[in-house]
Amino acid sequence: MRGYIRVLAVFLLTSALIGASGAASADTGNVTSRFQRSASELLPRPQPASASSARGRSSWSGVKMPSFSSLEANPPTSSTEVTKTFQLTIKGTPPEGESFAVLYQTSDPEQAQGLHVFCGDGSETGAPPPACQGNGTVYSTSIEVKSGTEVAFAFGRLNVNSTSPPEFFRQGDETITHDVTNSAWYDYGAVQTVTKTFELTLNGTVAKGDAFAVGYVTQSVPVVEVKVFCGEAAGAPACEGDGKVYTVTQTFPKGTKIAVVYLRYDAAKDAVSPVFPPQVETLDTDFTNTGYFNYPGAKQPGIPSKLPSTGAGGTFGAAAALAGSVAGR
């Protein structure tokens, strides 16, 4: 009988431990998903600085040949057809919205001019071609003309998120008597990146069960990302106070526009709220956003901002300091 009671006790204790573990795991996932949901609701979706209305966007529609060459109508005398191929190599990484095309004009009245889009903008055809790829990607298109036809051509690029006119970077004019390929390349160079550090300082004694995170979203990747600073409820080590500093570091392409919000899970209220209002900034250099949260009785009033004194980052730092001190009361 005693053996039975002992086995039953072990079984009940094990079941309780498993249940507690499962509940903790469920709570962890719950708080993390709540951080994600709160960030998604709070963060604005930043737009590219160059974005404009659809009506004002740049496109290949209606673009004419540059005025470097003017061909006179001159019907070819040969009936033999030859192929002229236009080949483009894109080096580096094209920014979002880039598009490349080749425009041509011929001396044959029956085939006076045309436009072939390699990638990016489909306003001319109505069927958007694939987004432009770089790192040595090669595109090609061709036309059939009669031998003896004079052909002028121009390779160009534009960005559909800009109102700037197309840039023509390779032009030529020749008489075609046999199959020929005209090659051009465009080099974006190495992609420049910046390092963004999110820093949070917790002052005073952290309330049991609390957790903190940072959420952000960029104009190029419209999916909210959440990084947890601390908190067992969110699957990270327990938060520590008395001036403990937490950091999260992320690398972004230079010029990225980003919206950021710091979040707190208040275990006592079982609620997620922003530590301070969301901020939007453009990442042009390496820098750190500093925020702090003061619990009641904190000895340290706050941490000076490590941000530049000008620009969006400076405003971010001031907002963080102010809201952090208020939220902690």
Question: Would you give an account of this structure?
Answer:
The chain is α+β, with helices and mostly antiparallel strands. It folds into 2 domains: 28-50 and 192-327, Sandwich (Immunoglobulin-like); 58-187, Sandwich (Immunoglobulin-like), CATH 2.60.40. It has helices at residues 2-42, 312-327, and strands spanning 81-91, 98-106, 113-119, 137-146, 149-159, 167-176, 180-187, 193-203, 211-218, 225-230, 244-253, 256-266, 271-274, 279-283, 287-294. A hairpin with a 7-residue loop joins β5 (149-159) and β6 (167-176). The longest helix has 41 residues, at 2-42. The chain is rod-shaped and about 95 Å long.
Overall structural domain count: 2
Report strand %: 35-45%
Q: How much helicity do the residues have?
A: 10-25%
Shape: rod-shaped
N-to-C SSE string, H for helix and E for strand: HEEEEEEEEEEEEEEEH
Low-pLDDT ranges: 1-26, 49-56, 302-329
Rounded to an integer in angstroms, the radius of gyration calculated over CA atoms is 30 Å
Largest pleated sheet: 5 strands, antiparallel
From the 3D coordinates, which CATH architecture of the largest domain would you assign?
A: Sandwich
Q: Total strand count, please? A: 15
